[in-house]
């Protein structure tokens, strides 16, 4: 892309980011605000640089309306119009309460009453 004029290259880059953001359903919630995640990977995620001030601390991550995880994050860097965040710790959300005993893998899903 080095042979393209700067304005065309910037326009193509902005169109690519807009397309990625449209495809992504991930959002990060911090301070009562939700910010769209442009891309995500195992150890972090990226948001648009102008979308918010620097985030830090505990955030909740959602896919649509479904709570996916809670993470402790730090701002790693800003590059190419994206703020890159890295996880210090990430805990997956669960719809079942934690249990204080081990459940066997072959346990029945439920019991039928005897007549």
Outline, from the CA principal axes? Answer: elongated
The figure for the number of domains is 1
Quaternary form: single chain
Mean pLDDT: 84
Give me the Rg, rounded. 20 Å
**Percent of residues in β-strands:** 35-45%
Q: What is the correct CATH architecture?
A: Beta Barrel
Stretches where pLDDT is under 50 for at least 5 consecutive residues are none
Computed structural class: alpha+beta
- Characterize the biggest β-sheet: 6 strands, antiparallel, barrel
Overall helicity: 10-25%
The number of distinct β-strands equals 6
CATH topology: Thrombin, subunit H
Helix/strand order, N-terminal first: HEEEEEE
Cα distance, first to last residue?
75 Å
The CATH class is Mainly Beta
Quickly count the helices: 1
Which strand order spans the largest sheet, edge to edge or round the barrel?
1-2-3-6-5-4
How are the elements arranged and paired?
Layout: H1 6-23, E1 26-30, E2 33-41, E3 44-48, E4 57-63, E5 66-79, E6 82-92
Antiparallel strand pairs: 1-2, 1-4, 2-3, 3-6, 4-5, 5-6
Brief summary:
This protein has 115 residues and is an alpha+beta fold.
Protein architecture, described:
- With 115 residues, the chain is an alpha+beta fold.
- The protein has a single domain, classed as Beta Barrel (Thrombin, subunit H).
- Helix content is 16%, strand content 44%.
- The protein contains 1 helix and 6 strands.
- A 6-stranded antiparallel β-barrel has the order 1-2-3-6-5-4.
- The radius of gyration is 20 Å and the shape is elongated.
- It starts with 5 loop residues before the first helix and ends in a 23-residue tail after the last strand.
């Amino acid at each position: 892309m080095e042979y393209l004029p700067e304005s065309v290259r910037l326009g193509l880059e902005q169109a690519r980011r807009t397309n990625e953001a449209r495809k992504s359903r991930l959002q990060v919630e911090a301070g009562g605000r939700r910010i769209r995640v442009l891309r995500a990977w195992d150890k972090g995620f990226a948001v648009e640089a102008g979308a918010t001030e620097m985030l830090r601390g505990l955030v909740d991550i959602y896919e649509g309306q479904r709570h996916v995880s809670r993470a402790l994050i730090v701002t790693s860097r800003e590059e190419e119009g994206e703020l890159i965040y890295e996880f210090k710790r990430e805990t997956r959300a669960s719809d079942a309460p934690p249990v204080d005993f081990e459940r066997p893998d072959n346990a029945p899903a439920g019991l039928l009453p005897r007549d």
